[in-house]
Prior knowledge:
Layout: E1 11-13, H1 16-26, H2 29-34, H3 42-45, H4 48-54, E2 56-62, E3 68-75, E4 82-90, E5 95-104
Parallel strand pairs: 1-5
Antiparallel strand pairs: 2-3, 3-4, 4-5
Amino acid sequence: MRRAGVEGLYDWALAADDVRHAFRRHGDPATEARLGQLAVTADDFRLAAIALRDGQWRLDGTTDIGRPAIVLEYSHPQSGIRYVMVWEVRAGRKMIVLKSMRKWPAPGAPRP
């Protein structure tokens, strides 16, 4: 966590409410296609652990309730799909929880 400016050991978690938020806000293929993005699917959440290990992350501002936010960017090595995940630091609980996820097609791939 030192790379993101948060010291100590934290548990990383996918909270059910926040996973539902990602589906509700970023899971409709037609809406996401209009934005040049891809819809988030259940399979995308399976990549969270790999993205945490291999992605680029940084402390970046705060969430809507004022907690520190970590932005994680990850490009899937086979598909080239680019993921951006926002995680919320809950310092009192020593937890970092996924708040949202979006994804974009590989560079040069046809737009959705």
